[in-house]
Specification:
245 residues; mainly beta; Porin; two-stranded antiparallel sheet
Length: 245
């Protein structure tokens, strides 16, 4: 981890956690509009740190229509490379969900990943189509397809190549607002770099009202380190605080 992250990360976390303490008593989750504010010690996405081991401040806004369709946006600071190229990731999404029999549900969505204030000379924006099958709030399986992926790794920069993700997440409720959480995924980068890789996570979540706190351990196979070096999240512990309103 780069030394420059230490003081800045602590300051970022302190500021947002203070804001969360103010917002939590006022938060509401009624109506079609919902939102979130979060602070995390590391923004990990599919086994790779998007902040190179540093903290992230995140927020989102979502509209849910009674007929099932939804739309929204989410943003986080990112810093995926060791030379410190700080900018913002903005995800704009829309889709539709519908109920199936016996607590089963399905959801289809499209997300556009945008990188604002990105000083890199090459574009990294891409889109993703996803289909999720879920059982209650305990189990979800998602298949995602990215028709125009853009990535940089030790093997170079690749753009406008397809990739895919296959993910499974689970949640097991415990007493007093606690839950065991976990997930695993396979990420097919064969059209980009001729390889794919596995990653997983497990942890504990605590929910009280609209506030939640998670502690998660991440795992990633050696291919992730070969492609992304120290951005591999293998073996990392991450703490995340979220306020939903």
């Amino acid at each position: 981890m780069r030394a420059r992250h230490g003081g800045a990360a602590a300051a970022q976390m302190a500021v947002l956690l203070a804001a969360l303490l103010v917002v939590v008593p006022l938060c509401h989750a009624d109506g079609p509009w919902t939102g979130s504010l979060a602070a995390t010690t590391d923004y990990v996405f599919r086994g790779v740190s998007q902040t190179y081991g540093g903290a992230a401040l995140q927020g989102g806004l979502n509209y849910q229509n009674p007929t099932g369709w939804f739309a929204g946006g989410w943003a986080s600071n990112v810093d995926p490379y060791p030379f410190g190229a700080d900018f913002a990731e903005v995800n704009l999404y829309g889709g539709v969900g519908w109920a199936l029999a016996s607590n089963w549900s399905a959801r289809a969505s499209y997300t556009r990943y945008l990188y604002a204030w990105d000083k890199r000379p090459k574009p990294y924006d891409y889109g993703e189509l996803s289909l999720t099958l879920g059982y209650s709030d305990r189990l979800a399986a998602t298949v995602s397809y990215q028709p125009d992926s853009a990535r940089f790794s030790t093997l170079g920069y690749v753009r406008n190549k397809p990739s895919a993700a296959y993910e499974l997440t689970a949640r097991w409720p415990l007493p007093r607002g606690f839950a065991l959480v976990g997930g695993a995924g396979y990420y097919d980068l064969s059209h980009l770099y001729g390889v794919g890789y596995w990653s997983a996570n497990t942890g504990v979540s605590w929910v009280r009202g609209c506030f939640s706190f998670d502690v998660t351990r991440f795992f990633a196979e050696g291919t992730v380190r070969r492609l992304f070096q120290d951005a591999s999240a293998d073996g990392r512990w991450v703490a995340t605080a979220v306020c939903r309103f």
